[in-house]
Amino acid sequence: MKSILILGGDGYLGWPTAVFFSKRGYSVTVVDSYFKRNICKNHNINTLYPTLDLVEKSKIWYDLTGYEIKVVICDLRNHEEMRKLFTSSIKYNFAIDHKFTGIPETVIHYAEQPSAPYSVYDYKSANFTLINNLSVTNNLSWTIKEFDKNIHIIKLGTMGEYGTPNIDIEEGWIDINHKGRTDKFLFPRQASSLYHTTKIMDTDLLWYYVRTWNLKVTDLMQGPVYGNITTDTEIDDRLKTSFHYDEIFGTIINRFLVQAVVDFPLTVYGKGDQIRGYINISDTLQCIYASEKNPPKNGELKIFNQIVETFSVNQIADMIAKAGNEMGIKVKIKKIDNPRKEKEKHYYNPVYKGLKEIGIKPKLMTNEIIKKMIHEVLKYKNNINKDKIFNGIKW
Amino acid sequence: MKSILILGGDGYLGWPTAVFFSKRGYSVTVVDSYFKRNICKNHNINTLYPTLDLVEKSKIWYDLTGYEIKVVICDLRNHEEMRKLFTSSIKYNFAIDHKFTGIPETVIHYAEQPSAPYSVYDYKSANFTLINNLSVTNNLSWTIKEFDKNIHIIKLGTMGEYGTPNIDIEEGWIDINHKGRTDKFLFPRQASSLYHTTKIMDTDLLWYYVRTWNLKVTDLMQGPVYGNITTDTEIDDRLKTSFHYDEIFGTIINRFLVQAVVDFPLTVYGKGDQIRGYINISDTLQCIYASEKNPPKNGELKIFNQIVETFSVNQIADMIAKAGNEMGIKVKIKKIDNPRKEKEKHYYNPVYKGLKEIGIKPKLMTNEIIKKMIHEVLKYKNNINKDKIFNGIKW
Prior knowledge:
2 copies of one chain form a homodimer. By secondary structure, the first copy, chain A, is of the alpha/beta class. In chain A, the strands form 4 sheets. In chain A, strands 3-2-1-4-5-8-12 form a 7-stranded parallel β-sheet, sandwiched between helices. The first copy, chain A, has helices at residues 14-23, 35-42, 54-65, 79-84, 116-119, 123-147, 194-213, 252-261, 281-293, 313-326, 354-357, 367-378; strands spanning 3-7, 27-32, 69-73, 106-109, 152-158, 173-178, 181-186, 216-222, 225-226, 266-269, 275-280, 300-306, 309-312, 333-336. In chain A, helix 8 (252-261) crosses helix 12. Helix content of chain A is 35%, strand content 18%. Chains A and B meet through helix 6, strand 6, strand 7 and helix 7 of A and helix 6, strand 6, strand 7 and helix 7 of B.
């Protein structure tokens, strides 16, 4: 039985990833500090529907399927807490068998503060984002060096690391010809938030450890994810992953879906010509799974661009408006002053072939999928707090 | 009277920088947490000669010259401590006039853990290096955004950020032509220690804030510094800057000078063909001064490569051996297994024109300068603890 450790297992992607691997016969342990829940409490943010905590969800998952997901609640900024996960001094907050599972073959590292607006909200949230995100990656690297350099780290990066350069975006690496000489480098990166900048730093940090200690790392440059439906969590509503529509943690498509159903004009920032790569949450799971099955060699940093298609903000707004209108919901679109500092008109041509080469079958956005998502959101329409949709966190 | 704030004012470069600006009529405040002194205490490291603390040195400087250098001892990882430096709630540990000087025109930011070996010594020193270096830069950026975006930040980077690429190293920026399109980027960087990697991250962090908040930053990519003689500190031995010859904080030339006088064969790591750019400590002061006089515009990140010439390790060892032998000291050279992970044979062609263009007159290494430095070290020969010269911190 292959053993897998998921850091940040309570998150939007962490929980469905845990369920996905559990269902496929892996021995899964999830770890979280609940900081996102705490931020939400402090900012009075509710998700579209309440989400049970990890212990509760894991109990339900076990009761329904007989599969055990072990749970540890701890703060991985603390190196000793990280070390414990790799030793028999681990204390599970939930387990059926409390015996230590053993050192994992793979660690999936989602344990980062994932919000761009939150990262620049004030100096405290900035410091938290910077220190949390880099400490966890650093502690993980040192721990893996200590215990077993063959453990595969799968780390979530972001397409935002690249920003919007005027040249084609390659998958992580670029050959630069300069004054008649050539070398291969990490693709140059320049992000548009502090959060995204911590991901650039993470990549530099991991690449340093990979080449110094021969670690094995896959860095997945993911675009904004949308949706909440993943096959394995569909068996019970209580297993659904969290769905944020607030300005801090909501990703653009999910926010727009909620705005559509409560007659809140879709908030297009600036001109709306900002293009990004997008991915359905169920494809995220496919990508993580394929990455797990195709580990790098020791001393190799594999980078994939984890998107399946690109859209401008205007295109997204138009697609959602069209689907909504066909469902009898009147969807308005409103261009507002861009609270973000970003290019609103830019070249964008990213390569994203690597994941398809290892077997991903992309689930592209369709009118039908949007309607299914709107239908899902409509079920919880009464929970939506319109005050939390947009307050204009600026940077 | 122009006001200048020097973070890390107790360090090898911090103190002589303070004296330099003080002598030239600037109102100078130095800040330090003494962490380097504490590390030295914990690791039982002594410098070539004892160095007085900042309060003692500033008192002497005032007694001898009538110039006041104000001193604050605090930990700038704490954002509130950073903020206080910009307000009348500042508490000086030493001052002649305890009234707040006012918001500085320039901040020189040296407040980082500067040792590559220490940064990879163990997970604690790694975490400290990462968190200290990035927190201080982050806290400084937020504070300057809050108080006055026209304050010029001069930040010490390192040539080590670039590593040893197979293409010419430009000054900070590069135009990349790729598949028929062009854009300008930070020069790609890939360092050979965690410390150097934190400097890459620093540059990314500052560049993010520069373009987001229109800050004014100069990032100086400095090579290893050598020497301890700076004109203004020569008036009294008690004002000399610290001189480290230990494996943790000693820079290569200073270490070799000490090894030469105590008959400890010069420790050439590996083949000795590693080429780096070097600079005399008195030129560091010139460069900082010229940078202060030539601030960037708001929204501009100026990058200079702060070196004046390049040498291989073998060349340095040979120069020191030659000078020593001419002085009647028998200097041996010994190639030892490289404890570092670095290329020992590589292309190296860095550009370093920018600082000359703003007036720097480089003080190049000569046989005479080496002899003067050996003479200086000989004065303190009896203080040297040979056990601290090399213990082989590996990475």
